[in-house]
């Protein structure tokens, strides 16, 4: 079982798309194990996007992420990280496949609605940064119909 850090960014919150994003992950069978609606302190935003600090768009990215509340979440599933990246679509909505969140709901590379961890190490780092220790998961009555071998 894997966990991934997901965030509906300030544009998604402002546009009333929190429920839409959550629905897409719920409908895939992913399990919500943590959620926090919050305004992001600058220091947390800078730590979260630390690997991009030398990119020209970094200052704008930090301004954007701290510009309004976000919905920070942790989702769990057998291949949560890859599933979520596929459901999100490519970073630039112009390159995202139809049916993905970014292709269906966004048109700008910066205001692209949603963040999802890009690998196991990143996921562990981001979950720790945003949530600390989340602890154990929980069983859903229909888990056996969604991932029967797990
Ligand atoms: P992703 O969010 O798909 O993991 P990333 O980690 O490379 O993409 O970049 C983080 C965010 O930074 C991305 O969601 C939007 C912003 N960003 C990336 N490339 C950008 C660019 N060329 N211009 C403006 N913003 C950009
Ligand atoms: Mg990324």
How is the topology of this model organized?
Elements: E1 2-8, H1 10-14, H2 18-28, E2 31-38, H3 42-48, H4 58-65, E3 70-77, H5 80-88, H6 101-105, E4 114-116, H7 120-131, H8 143-146
Bound molecules: 2'-deoxyadenosine-5'-diphosphate and magnesium ion.
2'-deoxyadenosine-5'-diphosphate binds next to loops.
Task: Describe the structure in brief.
With 150 residues, the chain is α+β, with helices and mostly antiparallel strands.
CATH class: Alpha Beta
CATH topological fold name: Alpha-Beta Plaits
State the fourth-level CATH superfamily: Nucleoside diphosphate kinase-like domain
Number of domains: 1
Uncertain stretches of 5 or more adjacent residues: none
Count the E strands.
4
The computed structural class is alpha+beta
Shape: globular
Rounded mean pLDDT is 97
User: Helix tally?
Assistant: 8
Ligands in the structure? 2'-deoxyadenosine-5'-diphosphate, magnesium ion
The CATH level-2 architecture is identified as: 2-Layer Sandwich
Short key terms for the protein model shown above:
alpha+beta; 4 strands; four-stranded antiparallel β-sheet; 150 residues; 8 helices; binds magnesium ion; binds 2'-deoxyadenosine-5'-diphosphate; 17% strand; Alpha-Beta Plaits
What does it look like?
The protein has 150 residues and is of the alpha+beta class. It has a single domain, classed as Nucleoside diphosphate kinase-like domain (Alpha-Beta Plaits), CATH 3.30.70.141. It is 41% helix and 17% strand. The protein is built from eight helices and four strands, in the order βααβααβααβαα. Strands 2-3-1-4 form a four-stranded antiparallel sheet. The longest helix has 12 residues. The relative contact order is 0.24.
């Amino acid at each position: 079982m894997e966990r991934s850090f997901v965030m509906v960014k300030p544009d998604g919150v402002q546009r009333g798309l929190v429920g839409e994003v959550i629905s897409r992950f719920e409908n895939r069978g992913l399990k919500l194990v943590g959620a926090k609606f919050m305004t992001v302190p600058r220091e947390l935003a800078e730590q979260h996007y630390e690997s991009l600090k030398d990119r020209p768009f970094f200052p704008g990215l930090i301004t954007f992420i701290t510009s309004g509340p976000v919905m920070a979440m942790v989702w769990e599933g057998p291949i949560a990280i890859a599933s979520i990246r596929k459901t999100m679509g490519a970073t630039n909505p112009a390159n995202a496949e139809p049916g993905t969140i970014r292709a269906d709901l966004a048109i700008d590379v910066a205001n692209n609605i949603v963040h999802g961890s890009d690998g196991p190490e990143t996921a562990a780092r981001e979950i720790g940064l945003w949530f600390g220790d989340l602890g154990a998961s929980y069983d859903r009555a229909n888990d056996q119909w969604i991932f029967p071998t797990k």
